[in-house]
Amino acid sequence: MRRIRNAxxxxxxxxxxxxxxxxxxxxxxxxxxxxxxxxxxxxxxxAELATRVSTVELGPEDxxxxxxxxxxxxxxxxxxxxxxxxxxxxxxxxxxxxxxxGALAVTVLNQALRPVLxxxxxxxxxxxxxxxxxxDPVSYERGWEHAxxxxxxxxxxxxxxxxxxxxxxxxxxxxxxxxPATMPYPPPGGRRGVTAGAVSPRVRHYGCARACAGPPPxxxxxxxxxxxxxxxxxxxxxxxxxxxxxxxxxxxAGRRGL
Length: 258
Known about the structure:
This protein is mainly α. It has a domain at 3-172. It has 5 helices and 5 strands. It has helices at residues 36-50, 65-86, 101-128, 137-142, 147-172; strands at 3-5, 11-13, 16-22, 26-32, 98-99. The radius of gyration is 37 Å and the shape is elongated. 16% of the residues are buried. Residues 214-258 are annotated as: Disordered.
C-alpha cells in the first residue's frame, strides 16, 4: 500500500484494496485509488457513520429497532447530498476491478440497506399501529415475535457499514473513531511524576513507632528526633505529668551541725 501525506503531515494511502461481503450479493473486491474529492467525501460519510446508531452493536435487550431502521434510512439522504455536492469527481470512470467512492457508497445503500428497509419497515410499521395506548413503545416492540429476526438482519447490515467505515477512514487518513477511547485519566505516571492511584502517605506523629492513619499534614514535614521509639497514644503525644521538685540531698552522717 503506497501512502502520501496531506498538508498536516498525516499519511494517507495512494491506493487501498477493498474487500467487503454484502448479504445476497456476495463479496466486493477491488482497488481504490482515491482522488482528493473522494478523500473529502470519504471523511464526510465516515463522520456520519461513526456518530450514528447504525454502527453500534445492539444486544438482545438493547436499543430500539425503529431507531435503527430510521438511522439506515437517513443514510440515503446523507449519501445523496454528498454525491450532489462533489459531483462526478467522486465517481470517475475506471476499468474493471477498480472502486470509487460513488460506486461503493451506492452499492452499499442499494444492496445492503434497501432490501432490509423494504422488507422490515412495513412489517414493523404494521405491528406498531396495533400498539395499545397503555403500553410503552419499547416494551411493545420487544414483545414482537419477529424482533429477534429483525435484530439479526440489523446486525448483518451493521457489519457491512462497519467495513465501509473502515475503508472510508483509511482513505481519509483519519483515526479509528469507531473504537472507544480507552486512555485512562489521569494518564499513567500521574501529574508531576506522581503515580496515578497512589495512596497518600500516612502521618507519623511525634514519637510514634508506626505510621498512624490520618490525613496528610498541610505543613512541611519535620524530621523525627533521634531516640527510642515510643508507642503511639493517638493523634498527639501524651501530655507529660506534673513536674516534681527534687528533694535536697541529705548531709553525710556524723557531720550534722558542722
